[in-house]
């Protein structure tokens, strides 16, 4: 009995130890499974704070890079509401061809019309013996009135007009000028803070390049604004009041022949007179040359008999002695 009691006690103790070990293992496994979840929750809780910090840093950087210091997303400032409703910029050109009896008077009237409209005559040229062409620069709001006034000077045979919308180009150039101006100001600020010679040289080179680009953009913008403000009108005036030539006679008579002969004689006399007038300056030179030639020839003729006689005298005595 005592032995059986001892076995039971040891069995119960072994079972109890096994249960304790099993319970401890389950507790450790549950703790391990619970730890990643807590860490994940802590990571999720920390993420919003990090996002806010990144957003704040991004906003500060955008505020520094955006033109004029205005913050925006992705470096693009928000467009103000008043810019959505902009005035359209239109370049207008027109051309007129007018037949008029007096071209000179019409030219004067066209000049007067341009001056009255506060415009200018940019170009004027004669087209043949009975025509003229004028290029006018007229304020855009007065172009239609000027066209009607010029058309009233005669009969309009050709009329053309064209309108080109350049609003997008104007807005683009305005924006680029503003951005380039801000860039130049930033480079100037860097130049003021530069200390070394190398930095000053490099910054000055960059500043010169950006200022040249800014000047080019300003010139393009000014030219475009000039085209919008002043429209171009080309006026071609054609004369129609020239008297027609009398018809030529088919059968020439005595008077026509006499006139033709006299005209030919006059032309021959003119040609001969021109030739004589051309040769007169050369007559003294020719006279000198002829005189020298005559003198040389005469001298040679006088010497020729004397030389011949001397040769004969020298040859005679010699021949007798032999």
From TrEMBL:
<dbReference type="InterPro" id="IPR025645">
    <property type="entry name" value="DUF4349"/>
</dbReference>
<dbReference type="Pfam" id="PF14257">
    <property type="entry name" value="DUF4349"/>
</dbReference>
<feature type="coiled-coil region">
    <location>
        <begin position="200"/>
        <end position="227"/>
    </location>
</feature>
<keyword id="KW-0732">Signal</keyword>
<feature type="region of interest" description="Disordered">
    <location>
        <begin position="32"/>
        <end position="81"/>
    </location>
</feature>
<keyword id="KW-0812">Transmembrane</keyword>
<feature type="domain" description="DUF4349">
    <location>
        <begin position="88"/>
        <end position="294"/>
    </location>
</feature>
<keyword id="KW-1133">Transmembrane helix</keyword>
<protein>
    <recommendedName>
        <fullName>DUF4349 domain-containing protein</fullName>
    </recommendedName>
</protein>
<keyword id="KW-0472">Membrane</keyword>
<keyword id="KW-0175">Coiled coil</keyword>
<feature type="transmembrane region" description="Helical">
    <location>
        <begin position="268"/>
        <end position="296"/>
    </location>
</feature>
<feature type="signal peptide">
    <location>
        <begin position="1"/>
        <end position="30"/>
    </location>
</feature>
